[in-house]
Amino acid sequence: MEEAASEDVQSALAAATAQGNIDEVRRLARQMLAANGSKAKPQKSPPRPAPDAKKVAAVETAAQAATTSSHESKQNTSELFGLTLSREHVMGEAIWPAALCLCRWLEGEGAKPLRVLELGAGGGAPGLLAAALGSSSVVLTDGDAGLLPLLQRNLALNRQRISCDVHVYRLDWRSSESVRECCSLAPSTDEPGFDTILAADVLFSVGDIVPMARAVTALLRKHADASLLFAHSCFFDELSHTLLAVMEDAGLKLTRTSRSQEANVLEFRWSSPCEKASPPS
């Protein structure tokens, strides 16, 4: 009975997300946390859990189906967003469903001269598209040092479409020093940090949520227009309620949603932008 009720609430949460009913999304997320009988926050420094292999495999299969190319040397995605991405046999190389949905969101928003940071960029499609659409600066990051050369290659392949400064950086969310160094890459203004943070399929377990939220609160500019655009494939829907609660506790409220059959995009903004929220612990 309890499992069935939980599935009903999860389905209702997905429906509310699809409808863009923000108040209902928040209510259902809190209801799921209460039903689980535990707080939204994992321990302060949780061990890094291994991703769910079946879910990762499912997402990769969907990604390959969405981006199959007949080219041997490179993967051409111009039919989608005009980006040319290097083809590599690594987990982060494919354009996963969440990244595709995030790119569609960015394309719909149009050109904006913003300082953009992409977390867990993999091949960097959303960040590169943001750069091509007119961002003032972009920083592409990933925690896997082995993916940085891929990001550099993809940047080089698309350089003709990009007029702004783009940096590639290895960011470890769990390292405060790494986060501080990354924040210093944002162009200097009266308000440090980035205007927009992009993240697509960067969470694979609940233990990743608090470290990511802590990094986001340190990196995101404290301004009403600053936003986190978080996209996740529907294979990871069960993480949504914890993510929403942790973000709200960190001072970031859900403001818009977009849902497709493959993925969700969630937009978060500061609840009180003039006051720096306490980082999640």
Automatic annotation (TrEMBL):
Pfam families, A to Z: Methyltransf_16
Organism superkingdom: Eukaryota
Residue ranges, compositional bias (Low complexity): 58-68
Region Disordered: start-end pairs: 33-77
InterPro entries for this protein: Methyltransf_16, SAM-dependent_MTases_sf
UniProt-recorded name of the protein: Calmodulin-lysine N-methyltransferase
Source organism: Chrysotila carterae (Marine alga)
Organism taxonomic ancestry: Eukaryota, Haptista, Haptophyta, Prymnesiophyceae, Isochrysidales
